[in-house]
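Q&A log
Question type: sequence-to-structure
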Amino acid sequence: MARLADYFVVVGYDLDKRGGSEGQGHILQRFPEKDWEDNPFPQGIELFCQPNGWQLVPERERPSFFVSVLTDINSERHYCACFTFWEGLDNPQLQKAEASEVDEDEVPGLVQPAQVFAPKSLVLVSRLDHTEVFRNCLGLIYTVHVDSLSVPLETVIGNLLTCVIPVAGGSQPGQEEREESLRTITLGAGDRQVIQTPINDSLPVSGSSVAHLFRQLGIVNVLYLFCAALTEHKILFLSSSYQRLTDACRALLAIMFPLKYSFTYVPILPGKLLEVLSTPTPFIIGVNSFFRSETQELVGSMTLDVIIADLDGGTVTIPECVHISLLPDPLLQQTQTALSMVLDPELEIADHAFPPSSTQPSTLKIQDKEIRAVFLWLFGQLFHGYRWCLHIIRIHPEPVIRFHKAAFLGQRALTEDDFLMKVLDGMAFAGFISERGPPYRPTDLFDDLIANQVERIRQEECSPHKVMNHIKELAEQLFKNENPYPVVAMHKVQRPAESPGHNDPKNLAIFPPLDDVTVQLFIDHAAAKLKTAPPMVRAELNGMVPSGPPLGDIVDRHGHVLANSARRLEVVRNCITYIFDNKMLEAKKLMPAVLRALKGRAARVCLTQELNQHVLQNRAVLDDQQFDYIVRMMNCTLQDCSHMDEHGIAAILLPLVTAFCRKLGAGITQFAYSCVQEHMVWTNMQFWEAMFYSDVQNHIRALYLEADGGEQSIASHGQQESGPAAGGQELLGALELASEQSRLWPTLSKEQQSERVQKEESTVFSQAIHYANRMSYLLLPLDTSKNRLLNRSGIGDVESVSNSYVTNSIAGSMAESYDTESGFEDAESSDVANSVVRFINRFVDKVCNESGVTNEHLKALHTMIPDIVQMHIETLDAVHRESKRLPPIQKPKLLRPILLAGEELVMDGMRVHLISDGREEATGALGGPALLPAEGAIFLTTYRLIFKGTPNDPLVGEQVVTRSFPIASLTKEKRISVSLSMDQFIQEGLQLRSCTFQLLKIAFDEEVASDLAEVFRKHMHKLRYPQHVQGTFAFTVGQSGKTLVEHKTKDKNQSIKTLSKNLVKSAKRTIGRQYVTRKKYSPPTWENRSSLQSELDEDEISVSEELDQGSLTLSSTIRSSDRQTMSNVVERACCRDYQRLGLGTLSNSLTRSKNEPFRISTVNRMYTVCRSYPGLLIVPQSIPDSTIQRISRCYRQNRFPVVCWRNSRTKAVLLRSAGLHAKGVVGFFKSPNAPSAGPSQADSTSLEQEKYMQAIISSMPSYCEPSGRNTLGGFTSTHMSTSDSSDKLRQPKIGALMKQVMGGKEDVPGTFSRGGKWGSIRGSGRLSAYNPEVGNRLSSKESPQPNGGPSEALFLRQQRAYLYIIGDKTQLKGGKQDSFQQWEVVPIEVCDVRQVKNSFKKLIKACVPSSATSEPSMTFHRCLEESEWMCLLHRVLQVSVLVVELLDTGSSVMVSLEDGWDVTTQVVSLVQLLSDPYYRTFDGFRLLVEKEWLSFGHRFSHRGAQTLASQSSGFTPVFLQFLDCVHQIHLQFPMEFEFSQYYLKFLAYHYVSNRFRTFLLDSDYERIELGVLYEEKGERKNPQVCKSVWDYIDRLNKKTPIFFNYMFSPEDEEVLRPYSFISNLKVWDFYTEETLSEGPSYDWELVQRGRQERLAEEVPDKPDTTTPKSQRHIVWPCYDSRSRVVPDAITKLLQDLQSLEAELGLPPEKWKDTWDKIKANQRAEAKLENRPSFNSSLLMSSNLSHQRRSQGVYLPESGVGSSINLAMDRETSTTSTPVAGRPSTSTLYSQFQSTESENRSFEGILFKKGALLKPWKPRWFVLDKTKHQLRYYETRQDKECKGVIELAEVESVIPGTPTMGAPKNIEEKAFFDLKTTKRVYNFCAQDSPNAQLWMDSIQSCLSDA
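Response status: OK
Response body:
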């Protein structure tokens, strides 16, 4: 029973405290004046009576009524019903004015009314919410007062305050009368009301407020508000009606049932308290629209996270920053449908042709209940099965219940659902669990719904009409609950009479002060009566709460979760069975399938069940391999569990990981938990709590089960985890048991009660200890020196996933040494320990406080935990030590790479996985099994980086995959993280790119510690960028690898000493008579020298020059004793070439050399003039050395013009130099007014430069005419006397070429004017800024036109210049032309070094992409185009062809670009290669490279970024570009080159490999300095180690024709003019091909040794004669070397020759001799037959095919398997591989297919009887005397032998008899038998003579033997 009203209060306007505009209210009277004990008086009522503020009004307003809700400190709600009316009083303003008449006109112009009205409120405070009753009661009081009824107000109020009514309870038979009397109240004024108390007070009472809310806002808006309230957002209602605000708030709370709102709830907020809106917590608040603007400001100034619902306008405003999670999908739809069917039933039939007559919605009250029923149904859907996820952790003294959220979400398959997650995490749900969790309590409608109607909801959810019926039933129950009685007729309450004068102010008396004594008497009287009355006992209807159907079944029927087919589960079961039966091979095969299956939940559950069966007494000891597999499966299972573990998989595995173990050594056991720690779930506190509660529940259940009669204890830990899955149906569930215990509790004695409490408490305590242990198991890493707890970056961090893998020798030793070095072991491990202890402490505090563990026990736990952890760390240390010693488990054996002589391992193999990159061939994308990914090891040697391993794909598991590249060619290293498909762990890896077009994408295996990977990277960097070039492999080869890293001091001293010795020595030798003088300079001691002298100090050695250096030719300066050294210089400086070209002479007769136009100058012998030039240079005879020194200063890097080649026919010369300095340009082309060092300096230099040019021009025979005049006067067009008429034909071609070369986009068309004249030097057509007249000092200059182009006179002249200077456009702006056209400048655009660098980067990415992509913008050809590599080749070739043309037509050319060592070198070399056939031979090409690239100082070290110093400059492959150009020319003229394409690839590979010293350092000067230059000849200590690439090529060329081009058939003096358009250029296959079987083939001895080893493996111990071995072989384009497996015909023939020589024991002949002999023979034959020899060379070649084949070729391997493999079967093809099936090659093939034809002694067809029951078959038999065997084939053409009969085993040949199935119509004598030691063969020939022949032949063979 409860009081209807606690307090009655009269609140009035406070006249005294009136301040400004705002008045205040104050309590006039309150009854009772003393607070009730159980219910103190709420403060601040006066604010809530007038929420808009207390104000006086000029006119009386109508009485108003509303209910405010106040919440007290105990979150009890008080309902304050306010009845407000207005009373008149004289205007206080006027009174004030009269009192002080001074300020008469206080407010002028405002007529103050004489009377104003003040509000007065009657307030009723109650804890019950009966709005209508309150309205009636207060109305009655007002009526009594207004109508002056005879009843005293005190009586009415006294009665009101003493009314006591039942809180709840419907009509129950027998009690009806009494209840009715209780519910009927009267206040003693002739009134009477029946109060409808709800049957069940747990259901909210809503009247029709919910229906009103939906009408005001609409379905969607209310659903938004509903979700917002549940997910804890702030909601603000606005309306101009107070009662509506209250109703709306009440409605929102009503639809949230069974959840209760627990945050701020203020349906009517007074204006004075608006700041409450800025609270950070969620709320539901109503505010009058009067304050709309203030609220907007307040809400605006906050973070805008308030949702505003305007009830009057029907809108809901959700700010942008607020995201409301809505109901999960099908539910949202279903709810909306149901709501619209309730609110708007016409919608469904709006389209019907014959709509039913009446489809009105129900009345508001009924509709209200129907809407609530929809929401009840919705919660039934959302929460069904929640009771199965409750953990009861204490039953006594009162139940403590926890909800297992993860399991609930997992079983509902709603883990991803945002809405449900938020609801379950919310306060409302926590309240729901604590209220509804206890298993023994009264139940209500919702409990019934969850228990009994879930099944119905599920079946009906798809048919809205059935849902509707269900909802109507629920609505009916709700309505009954709220209105249990039929509305009683005796309901009667008076209202004030509406008389005409009623509102007249005169009539209305002021509400009188009441007599408190009278009222108090009433109250006391009633209280006394209550005490004496017998207590009304209302039966407690407690009962057990039913749980409803379990969750598991429901989800399974949905079929969402069981996506795993039975087959997959079968696989998992079989695999586990195999593992425990020790059938490891079988298990290994199933493993990938199992790991895939474990992605599904059912398979994971199945795994845990299966594993459970193998645990005996909590322990299962496995051997290493079993352990490994089980751990892998566990890891895989856990990996897909989220950190919440919603499926409870981790929970079921938890006991298993502490059960499975293996013995490591004496008394040391490693458990599975040490290998499955890498998962987030173990660091999630909620997971541990849920696990703990689940286990506690099981133990408490067991406790009472035993107590109740020793029922069987539960089957296993963790099985009650998710409730139903445990098969807990037949046993008593924990909740049922708890309910029973709660029922019995009151009947127990005190002792029994305390005993039970204590038992439960100790159960929880023991579990807490158990869990502290478990947590330490899973949180302490195996290697406790690594702190891995709680700061993990994610699963599968570097520390091993299954630690049983940390086993590799280095992993072991290195890791160990690192740990011990640190010396901080204790500190570190304690750090791990601390963090684990902290984590466990937090856990223990939380669970123990929640489950009521006593404080003593808690303290004990806290002292125990550090000891537990410490103990565990000690055990782990032992395990860690032992596990390191384990041999690696079932991982492929690491294959060792073959090393070069002198190559040493820097780091031994680290186990890695080679991941496939963007190249498709190896991944099986183009057909065939995938060779990648592969597992193996990466080795770092002093020379290379090598991966060697085997493919993961079992189909090619026996193949070996090798990828390697020289460490010096590494261009980019990038860290990547890779997920390997099989293990699904993310691993760290590296992506290494090499400029030999190789990419290694590796992922370190789990066993490789991360610090080890770091060490690997450091070593790699050290080797890639040594401090000095002496650190490169070419220098360190053969030394111990350690010296490489360690002692540096010793090294320096030596090198400097030898350097200085060599230099001084060679300087002395070279200079001869010139004497070396020391200046007074003492060098510092060697020890103090800080670094290598990179430059020769000029003050250390100085050369005193003799006067006439011009007269000294080299030969005259050399004494005979120095001849040896001199020959070195001569050879090195390419003097042989100069002599060959007739440029300089070395003869002693000075007279002859005087007449020659050029001489060899020694001006640079000390490298003082130009550091990067060679010591000997070709300069014009007439220029003295002193001039040269001055001229050189005008050019960049002092690289002045020198002659490097002369055309033997036209005698035109090719010069090279760097571009001019800016100063030089001015001096050369402009007036000498540039500021300069001395007054005459610039002037003289400019003159000297011209002299130099003139001297070059004079050297040309076409210039020095017979008359000897050196002027231009007699210059006629016949100056081309040497050239023939063909040149004239070619002239326009040159013009066109010139146009192409010079044409920039910005050229004005007028530049190229008539007659093919190619004119202007203008770079961009800007005007020259200088005065044209100033430069006319010389007769040879003429003033140019203002636009910087040549003058008109020049255009008219059709002559060609004597000398063309190819210069850089940018450099030559504003220069002027030589007037008499002796020389002319051709401005071109050259490619910048940066362009080459960037282009190369893109080219590498195109040819070797790092990952496969399907984007159309990333295809190979698109990337190739974007790299612009082909454009660069095109430009270089174009310029080269132009220069070739000019030289060929008799003009000299000077190439003067950039610094003269990149593009200049490319152009100059290509020009010589195209013009002079000599350079297209082996010797010539070598000479060309040595002369132009090495001597003339191309900066190989700098461009190749070979040392630390040049690292920043990056890799720029200028030389590679040149080789590519040569390759393009080679493709277009395959018969002009002596060397093959392979030769170019070989150079391209080794110029970056640093294996040879040839391409190291930047100039001859640097090479001399290091003593490298002259050592190559003569001083070879180690014949194995070649220091020069040329020697190596020579040696190899003698052995094998690999570098030789069989099509070499040059035409005499042929000048090549290749096409240079991009369409004519091909991508070099060097960029795209690879051979995975053996790695790059350019380290020849490695490949050879590899092949021999492979052959040795393939040859079996004894030849297997019975089964013929297939001669077929599959060729993969990316795996095999096609040129070797499918050699061209000539290579094949040479191989066969060699193998025959070996078989016959003849001394092997050199292949070259053989080749030359055959060539000679062929030529002779050709002459006889009068055939042009051209064809003969073609006949010798076998492959002019231009096809690229990407698929594997299936070929017979006829002679490839011959016992001796001639080392020449690599890449002999000039263009590509021969294609089987082309007529030319196939005939060659058949002709030389096999050498069997010579030893076929006798052959023919015989019928042979098959084995038992097999028919006779005709076969082609071959008797072979040489091999002493009888072979047979299917047919005559067949190449594959079907069987062999060894004649050695034949005992006799005798005539036979026909047997069953023999061929018909054949005479008897045609049969004969062959008896061998093994069996008898029956044969049948065509006729008897034939049979006789066969028998004789075989007999003779036998007798010969």
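Response note: DSSP finds 60 helices and 46 strands in the chain.
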